[in-house]
Amino acid sequence: MDFKELYLIIISAITFGYVTAAVLVESNVVNWIGLKTLKLSRFGIHPKLTNIPVIYLVSPRAAHMTASELLKKGEIEPIDLYLAILASNFPMRLMFLYRYYLPVLLPLIGSIAVYYALLRLFFDLVVLICVSIIGRIRYRNLNIQFHQPENVKITLSFNKILKGTIRGLKESGLFILKFTPLFVFIIFLINNGAMDWLTTKLKPFLGWIGFTPIEITYITTAAISPPVAYGLIRVMVEKGETINRILGTMAVGNAMFSLLRSWWNYLLPYYLGLYPLRITAALLLLQAGLPIIYNFTAGIVLIRW
Question: What is the domain count for the chain?
Fold first, then answer.
């Protein structure tokens, strides 16, 4: 893995995301979407955050920037943010599955890809139901006044784009200052064998659970690069592995990827430049910790079943 290239890719992508998000905010696109999505409050989302699930599909960065501004102004509390972000996972999962996941795995492993997609969706659906129940109880007496939709107009002018670009670059600079030392620390751990040590320690545990050598190979490979590991699924299919064993192996492989790489490579850059550390830590626990626990649990149950 070329860590310098990875760092530059992350910084470039996040800077572009910050600028795009800031332009969407400055041009009133975010407010316009928010007024069009007020009915989503029935799913247990704070009325001022009903635009988050929709904006998430367009630009996760813009969604977090919007929520961060409301949090700084004291218009929402951290729990309101957590509920809105968790509620956004279900539509995001649907988009991810049909745009990226299924087109790759369906030709490779056929119907097993559909079963795994349903396994992943089940968790997000349960979370959405729980969020809806908690939110509807929390906001049942909340009364917030909004401007009429016709009073919000999208204004994509040069000044708005310039202002958004400057704001986005400032936010990106703040992110880089926070992210760089953490990235260096994680790379230091990887280069000094911390990840290899953890993988080695997990192998006996995985074997004790009942994973076969090829399944353990898939899991350890998926921890570094899921696309590379996908080829092993075809091998398992040809060897006559049962569907539940393949699904269990894929679930644990995904958990390992989230544990060793996903949280710092993908999730941390979305949070670190916008939220205080305590909220960043809470979001990581919710967005990475809960799925890791679910995938490990589901994988072990499927293997032992």
Answer: 2
154, 185, 209 — which closes off a domain?
A: 154
Top-confidence residue, 162 or 63: 162
Structure tokens at 243: 């569907």
Contacts of 297 (CB under 8 A, 6+ apart): none
Question: Rounded distance, CA 282 to CA 289, Å?
Answer: 9
pTM for the whole thing? 0.71
Phi (first) and psi of residue 239, to 5 degrees: -80, -5
Is the pLDDT at 96 greater than 50? The verdict is yes
Please check whether residues 52 and 147 belong to one and the same domain: yes
How far is it, in rounded angstroms, from Cα 61 to Cα 94? 18
